[in-house]
# Entry
Amino acid sequence: MTRHGCAEKAAHSIRSIVGGDTDLVNLRNKRRVDISVYDTVIIGGSIHAGMIQKRVRKFCEKNKEMLLQKRLGLYLCCMYEGETAEKQFGDAFEEKLRRHAVATGLFGGEFDFTKMNFIERKIVTKIADITESISRIDEDAIRQFAGKFL
# Structure
């Protein structure tokens, strides 16, 4: 799930590497997803106001038992690095899911001012001291993550 496109870009990159018969589902557009038909499920989201999107969190909670039976990948797009990014990842995905996942990833993030409303731009400018669009997407981290599904 993505609000401004970063997690979606990562999903497309993963799909281009993994190939095959891969479905991309944005939980914003499709709230009911039958994951019973999949052997592998990769869940990704991004951080807004310090938290992953509510729909991603709820999806994981609702489908937890089935996800624990799948080959699972979890990723997060966020602008922080190091311990702060690790904490956001830990807050985003329950420990049991993190331990079960065959791949986890922190892919960096981006602020795309062209996709933000006025208030979002003001908040980013004040909190992150960034005044224009910036991308810190880590393509190498995405390739390493996707490689675990080949």
Remarks:
- The CA atoms of residues 16 and 146 lie 9 Å apart.
